[in-house]
Amino acid sequence: MRPLVNFGIPCMSMGFLVDETTPIVWRGLMVMSAIEKLLRQVHWGNLDYLVIDMPPGTGDVQLSITQNIPIAGAVIVSTPQDIALLDARRGAEMFRKVNVPVLGLVQNMSVFQCPKCLHQTHIFGEDGVKELASTLGMEVLGDIPLHVSIMKMSDLGQPVVLSSPDSPEAEAYRKIASAVVRRLSEHSS
What's the whole-model pTM score? Predict the structure, then answer.
């Protein structure tokens, strides 16, 4: 099967293969079979990078992927609140345990700036991911703000780096992408 191409980037998702209202209630072998299809039966063509967006946690999906393909590195994304940081820590530790380098952490929804008065509020906490990174001896690759333009553009299927390329939000994504590429080259040397 061929991936969909959005903005020049091939992509594939289980969501593309089922009706949008159908829940995907799979366990064990069904999950592993689906992962195998996405990895081996999609005609990806020549790629510079294959990015796999996984749900938080340390279950079948994560273990199946780490056992089936060589992974150059993992990026842990978390909001700065305590409950999310527990999953982030478990994820980082799981990747370490299966010998996948953790390239760093990303703090998502790090700050909200009121569009009217420009006051900044740390709705989910201020430095949770930074503190976790320090505890784990890892790098923070960047922060993604909680911003209306990111939500609107995501819902429209348009990356904010294309819709508002000069915005601070777009710069945040570019900074993280550059940091990931840098860390990958450090690990491959």
Answer: 0.89
Work out the number of other CB atoms within 10 angstroms of the CB of residue 75.
20
Distance of CA 95 to the CA centre of its chain: 14
Q: What confidence tens digit (pLDDT) does each residue in 66-121 have?
A: 888 889 999 999 999 999 999 999 999 999 999 999 999 999 999 888 888 888 89
Contact (Cβ atoms closer than 8 angstroms) between residue 77 and residue 108: yes
Alpha helices in the chain (DSSP H): 28-40, 60-68, 82-97, 128-136, 148-156, 160-163, 168-188
The reported pLDDT for the residue numbered 171 is: 97
All domains of the chain in start order, with CATH: 71-188 (3.40.50.300)
Tell me which residue of 128, 68, 71, 130 sits closest to 96, measured CA to CA.
Answer: 71
Task: Please give the backbone phi and psi of residue 153, each rounded to the nearest 5 degrees, phi first.
Answer: -65, -35
Angle between helices 60-68 and 82-97 (to 10 degrees): 30
